[in-house]
Structure formats: C-alpha cells, structure tokens
Write a structure and sequence with these properties.
It is a single chain. The protein has helices at residues 23-30, 62-76, 89-100, 134-137, 142-150, 157-171, 176-184, 189-192, 217-221, 241-244, 246-260; strands at residues 4-7, 11-16, 40-45, 82-87, 105-111, 203-208, 229-234. It is α/β, with parallel strands linked by helices. Strands 1-3-2-4-5-6-7 form a seven-stranded mixed β-sheet, with helices on both faces. Strand 6 (203-208), helix 9 and strand 7 form a beta-alpha-beta unit. The longest helix is centred in the N-terminal third of the chain and has 15 residues, at 62-76. It is globular, with a radius of gyration of 17 Å.
Length: 264
C-alpha cells in the first residue's frame, strides 16, 4: 500500500501531489483551508517513487501510475464515494480517476493542470518574477537561489520556509529513474485515443497567469469536460500559486467544499 496520512474524520477527500514532491507539500497547502472546516477526512498520499512510497519497477507509464493510485483508493475507501484534489501531476491523475470511475467521484479540484510533455510549448508564458524580494534572496543557498529565481513568480520569505520544510526534502526522496519511464509514456492511453468524459460533479480549476510550467490555456480548455467547474486564473501567480496567493486559493477551495458537501 502507498504511504499516506489521514487527517480528520468525515467525508473523504483523496489528495494527490505533483512530481518530485510528497504529501507534506499538499498539507502545507491545504490544511489552512480546514482550520475552520470540520467533517472532512483528508487522505494525503505519497505517490510511488515519492516520499515514503518506494518506486515500483512495474510502473513504466502514466497508465501504470494511475492504476496504482486506483488500487490504493480501493484499499482505503472500499465502495466509498470521495472527492479528489490534485496539483500539477496529481491533477492529471485526478483527471484519470474521473475518466475511469466518474460515479465514485463526488467532485474534483485541479490545481495548475496542463503543460504535459506533449503540449504545445508555445502556449506557455516565459517565467517572470512579479513580486521580487531581493533581501530574502541574499540569505539563500545557491540551490535555493535557483528555485527562487527560476520558479517563484512571487518571492517571499514564508514561501522559502515552506519550500525548506516540504519541497526541498521531498525531492531528495524522489525516484528520477521511475519518473523518466513515466515521462516517456506520459499521456494516458485514453487521452491518446481522444476519449473524453464529461464530469457533472462540482469542480474547481485554478491556474496561474504567469505559470511557465503548465500555463493557463490548458485549464481553460478543460471547461467543456467539467461543465460545473469554477475556473480561476490568478494574476501574479505561477506553478506555486497555492503558496503565492494562499488567501484566494483557500476561499476557492472552501467554496468548492460547500458545493460538494451535499453530494456524498
């Protein structure tokens, strides 16, 4: 079974992180949302080859990774309906779950979806720093400066501290070898065949206007598949928008929770 952490009791939400990360990043992002929200059982997962879930030799494609995640939720949520939150790679896996088992999914929240290796790179904006913080930069290590300069659209000390607690340590546990296999067969087979599922559950799609990794155009394209989605494209936000615009993301997720609550 994949390593996971369950926080709270009540209606289940499966929470999937992005590549090179683990459950700690999603906890940093989402637990503030639930400070005044009771009745939700958050299931934070370490995907295979991430965190405390070891890589698996039989995972050679995105289809294999999705199959492993679906086997996991059958183990921890047998027969239950659940909501799913995914960020970046986790959002693609969430879309795969919706595609293959839409009746089980109460609602879906997708953070920074899009930007797969097969996507058009011309749809991605160039990286730019919208809110610089030169004083904090002076205190960083060389590795941290690389992240600060090349990944952060908003530069703040609290974002660096969160990176040190979660993203930095998680990358040291990440399996680059498994990742290379998955990247070579990144798109789900059903997406390669052009198959689409229209999901009628309450959904949330959040994109960063300055996200140089996923962009925002792919998120807009998802609206036909998610007709009950609220779409937010946040200015002064990149791939780390949940940390860059935390108050707005918290409000959007709480609105989504209110919309899915009655569907369990």
């Amino acid at each position: 079974m994949l390593h996971h952490l369950i926080v709270g009791e009540g209606k289940p939400i499966l929470i999937l992180h992005g590549s090179t990360l683990d459950h700690r990043h999603m906890m940093e992002t989402l637990e503030p949302v639930f400070e005044s929200q009771s009745g939700w059982r958050r299931i934070y997962v370490d995907l295979p080859g991430h965190g405390q879930s070891p890589p698996q030799d039989n995972i050679c494609s995105q289809d294999d990774l999705l199959a492993t995640v679906m086997e996991f939720f059958e183990q921890v949520l047998p027969g239950e309906r659940f909501a799913v939150i995914g960020e970046s790679r986790g959002s693609y896996l969430a879309r795969g779950i919706v595609h293959l088992d839409p009746q089980r999914v109460v609602g879906a929240a997708l953070f920074v979806p899009g930007g797969s290796p097969s996507a058009d790179p011309g749809r991605l904006p160039q990286h730019q720093v919208m809110e610089p913080d030169p004083l904090t930069r002076l205190e960083l290590t060389e590795e941290e400066r690389g992240v600060f300069d090349n990944m952060m659209v908003v530069q703040r000390r609290d974002i660096v501290e969160k990176w040190r607690r979660s993203k930095g340590p998680a990358k040291k546990l990440w399996s680059a070898e498994q990742e290379a296999r998955v990247d070579a067969q990144f798109d789900f087979t059903f997406h390669e065949r052009g198959e689409k599922v229209v999901f009628d559950g309450p959904s949330l799609i959040i994109a960063g206007r300055q996200d140089s990794m996923s962009g925002h155009l792919d998120s807009i394209d998802l609206l036909d598949e998610y007709p009950r989605a609220s779409l937010a494209v946040l200015d002064a936000a990149g791939h780390g928008l949940a940390w860059e615009r935390p108050e707005l993301v918290t409000a959007l997720v709480r609105d989504w929770l209110a919309r899915i609550e009655s569907r369990y």
